[in-house]
What does this fold into?
Amino acid sequence: MQLNSPWALGDPVHIDGDISITGYVTAVLFRLTEPPTCEVQWMHNGGAQTAWFADWRLSKPESKKR
It folds into this structure.
C-alpha cells in the first residue's frame, strides 16, 4: 500500500481560499476510507492556532513576484 498526499510537512497553505492567513502543514493523517487530512498551524492576533483540514480545503499560496 502506498500513501500519498499533495502536501508535505512544512508546506505553506491557504485554507478555503483565504489568502489573508498563511498556515503550515505540521502533520498528515491517512485513513483507508477517506482522503488525507492535514494539521495546519498559523498565528492569529499573537496566538498560535492549530486545526485539522481535509486536503481539498487547502491551496498553495501563489509565489510573490519581485
Remarks:
- The mean pLDDT is 92.
- The chain has one domain: 12-58.
- The beta strands are 12-15, 18-29, 37-44, 47-54, 58-59.
- The two ends are 42 Å apart (CA to CA).
